[in-house]
Amino acid sequence: MDFPRDPSRRRLLAHGAALVAVTSGAAHAQTSPPASTPAVPAEAKPFPPYVAWKNQSQMIQHTATTIETKRSAYGTSIVTPADRLYIRNNLPAPDASIVNDRDGWSMAVEGVRSPRTLTVRELKSMGIETTATVLQCSGNGRGYFPSKPSGTKWQVGAAGCVIWSGVPVRSVVAALGGLADGARFITGTGGEKLPDGIDPKSVMVERSVPITNLEDALLAWEMNGEPLPHAHGGPLRLIVPGYSGVNNIKYIKRLAFTAQESDAAIQKTGYRISPPGQKHSPSEPSVWEMGLKSWINGPGPDTGPVKAGTVQIHGVAMGGMQAVKRVDVSIDGGQTWREAKLVGPDLGRFAWRQFVLPVKLEPGTYQLVCRAQDVKFNWQEETTPENSGGYLNAGWRAHGFSVTVA
Amino acid sequence: MDFPRDPSRRRLLAHGAALVAVTSGAAHAQTSPPASTPAVPAEAKPFPPYVAWKNQSQMIQHTATTIETKRSAYGTSIVTPADRLYIRNNLPAPDASIVNDRDGWSMAVEGVRSPRTLTVRELKSMGIETTATVLQCSGNGRGYFPSKPSGTKWQVGAAGCVIWSGVPVRSVVAALGGLADGARFITGTGGEKLPDGIDPKSVMVERSVPITNLEDALLAWEMNGEPLPHAHGGPLRLIVPGYSGVNNIKYIKRLAFTAQESDAAIQKTGYRISPPGQKHSPSEPSVWEMGLKSWINGPGPDTGPVKAGTVQIHGVAMGGMQAVKRVDVSIDGGQTWREAKLVGPDLGRFAWRQFVLPVKLEPGTYQLVCRAQDVKFNWQEETTPENSGGYLNAGWRAHGFSVTVA
């Protein structure tokens, strides 16, 4: 296990790298000693401006809007820092000027007894709550489906554990007189600018989740102790704990309590669990609750050679809507298992837990896998059935890998 | 309450500001839109290079080695991000090149049955544990002592809540055969370069804490999910949960289990609770355990005008060695109190808790104070007795302030 180097220097260098594109000579722009390895590998494309502040050496850029965390870049201190948290935007982010006046951002609330438009400033007067959740792209793990469904081939890195702070949605509803009759869904609409000349419903980011999430949902303006970065949905983002990324609406501009699910394509026919090779249909299950899942981060497939002796096998485990109870680790591909220890603070049922298992390894090749159990005694599935969108892969076997110990 | 703006842009601008000094024209060096306010106020001195990556607009620079977090910069999501965490170095930080090979950093272990020198690589094979602690400078709150003792006039910002990850000290001791006979203290020595020509004992950073801390102490290589920044003690720092900052040795190069406290000046005569105006003496209590303390962050003295209506009064409360049980808030300087709600995940007894109290405020002037109670039913003290070093100020009255509501 070889943890990466000083994030501060990397960040500087990442900026340095970004600046190369726009300054005539940035070699003298470093304010700390040069790193022994470049922050951005020679073959890697620099990140686009809206995420140029990310720790580029710790991430994998698939496209300008799909960037994942390297498996080796997850630390063991539970939280995922903003500068190494994955990026997945269904539409280009709105202009960054929207965070110039964070408190002035406004959101329409509909489907309550007294509907009205609220600014972030007003929301801040209605309550403060803080919740840790796993934020995970619906397609995380898609790269491990054998049939290679179309879409970004995410490995484990389209996920992170984040501490959000904002106002509970239930407090906003209470302040506006309660739910209107017939509300069965929480529907959030993102504030992205839509392309001209095409049906807005075909591209807009608008998702509905069951009203049962009213108890836990949050309108967040802060992430890990800092104002919510623009690239992650700032000034304001809907957080639906336990639900996959797409349901956590960035730049939220409308929050509606509706009788029906949104008829936007992203809800109606997008993000559905459909049989392989078939188009999505509204009759199929929506990609909502995340499943029970775990994976090993160290030593990892990208850790480099492992030295014989005692090795601390560590990773993360998440329960979706339930807390994780236990994690088992196998070094022989699942033939035999040992129970790992859960370490560190428990940030609640929507967060992930860190686990560690010390194992003495002789030289040889090992197939490392892990599987989690939740507090309802469910075990993580061995294999997630294929689906046409390649969503919600949580199979423990596919998330394993081999390491060679010398 | 007006939370600060996008940290990513600020960070960029902070770099931009730092770069101004070394590039001929940095106006075109921004990769995001210009901020409406400058990251570094015109009158503020840019941060020195080793901390140039900090979010300068959110901090107060007293000197190059004493930099605190603004009260308004504490969020409500418990953790304090590295880029707004305070800086207090007793000696200049070693050259940043020490983090070029983090795993190669070595530390001598003495006072065990099998003393030896261990690299971080070896420590990483011995165990992983994760602990959240309040890191707080011994002098935090000094600025609120009426007698103005000499030293940095910290307000509330020489503190933060950090999630550390590393190996438990007890695991290292176990791996080296257990403690040698007579060990009564854990003594850590920092790896700072000492100035030539003066007695090393007079300047070296070497502190001893009671051996009772063996259960909880950690050798940390990671902070909030990223490799421990050089400015905060990376590659390796001793963390003594519940103990004030100076006991958490940065760049630790020697860990000794000793029969006596260190005879370095910083331990022998420094950091002692002495009567006002008197020099420190080894017979006086060392600045070790932190006390029960809380303060309000928003609305704060630097929040700006507060609008009449419901206001969410929020802040943090820490118990030192015990968990916090309760926090009360007063808007009339302590004449009447209301119990606040503790919000967010509980990161354990060494972390702080966030608290929130919604209060309806009519136009007028209010004196905001808060006081915490720990699980042993102790209440935070109203006034901390003065001491010559101005240490460990935890008095609730002095940490209050007035706000005007219009």
TrEMBL record, chains A, B:
Coiled coil: none annotated. SUPFAM superfamilies: E set domains (SSF81296), Oxidoreductase molybdopterin-binding domain (SSF56524). Gene3D superfamilies: 2.60.40.650, Oxidoreductase, molybdopterin-binding domain (3.90.420.10). Its cofactor is Mo-molybdopterin. The keyword Ribonucleoprotein does not apply. Keywords: Metal-binding, Molybdenum, Oxidoreductase, Signal. Pfam families: Mo-co_dimer, Oxidored_molyb. GO terms for molecular function: heme binding; molybdenum ion binding; molybdopterin cofactor binding; sulfite oxidase activity. It comes from the Bacteria. InterPro entries: Ig_E-set (IPR014756), MoCF_OxRdtse_dimer (IPR005066), Mopterin_OxRdtase_euk (IPR008335), OxRdtase_Mopterin-bd_dom (IPR000572), OxRdtase_Mopterin-bd_sf (IPR036374), TAT_signal (IPR006311). The keyword Signal applies. GO terms for biological process: sulfur compound metabolic process. Residues 101-264 form the Oxidoreductase molybdopterin-binding domain. Residues 286-396 form the Moybdenum cofactor oxidoreductase dimerisation domain. This is Sulfite oxidase. It comes from Ramlibacter tataouinensis. The lineage of its organism: Bacteria, Pseudomonadati, Pseudomonadota, Betaproteobacteria, Burkholderiales.
